[in-house]
Amino acid sequence: MKKLLVSAAVAAAILTPSVALAQAVPAAVIAVVDLDRITTECTACKTASAALRAQVTSLQNREKSLATPLQTEQKSIQAAIDALQGKEPDAALQARVKAFQARQQQGAQEVQAQQVQIQRNQQFIQKQISDKLGPIYQSVMQRRGANVMLETGATLATTTSVDVTSDVLAALNTAMPSVSVTAPAAPKPAAPQGR
After folding, report:
1. Which of 67, 168, 56 is nearest to 118 (CA)?
2. What is the Cα–Cα distance from 44 to 48, expressed in whole angstroms?
3. If 141 and its partner were Cys, which of 11, 94, 136, 146 is the partner (CB 3.0–4.6 Å)?
4. How far apart are CA 120 and CA 164, in angstroms?
5. b/e map of 23-45 (b: 16 or more CB within 10 Å)?
6. What is the per-residue pLDDT across 17-58, written as a single tens digit (0 to 9) for each?
């Protein structure tokens, strides 16, 4: 019996400090922000969006300017091949085919490189905005007394009193009046080092 009482006393002594260390979690004070509105209405976002649209339009125009002469050349080559009626093409026609394929491949590589650059530009813009928004969220939460911030799309319903979108938008416009729309050059892959 004495061992049982000693064991209970030891267990109580061990458990008591951990219970005392546990603190109650404060009540959640939630703010919501509409990120779609932020990214469509912020001044720098509008400018960046217009620049990206211009880059896409330029790429589409370049694709057309590359495709038109290639299509014309392809039809001409196909007509010459059809005129042979199954005979082997001569060296000149074979050279035309090879030159056509080289131009076609070069054009495809150019278009792909521009597509990759546009994607990098878009990611760079998003990163700049995201980097600015992090501290703004913290500042707005502190000023408004919130300890949780949610995106409006992640909520089922809210009241306008918890919406801090206008605060975040105003702070973003102040902190980021413009944004760079061209990503820095991609780092070159490192050459393998010999030992």
Report:
1. 56
2. 6
3. 146
4. 30
5. eeeeeeeebbbbeeebbeebebb
6. 555 456 788 888 999 999 999 999 999 999 999 999 999 999
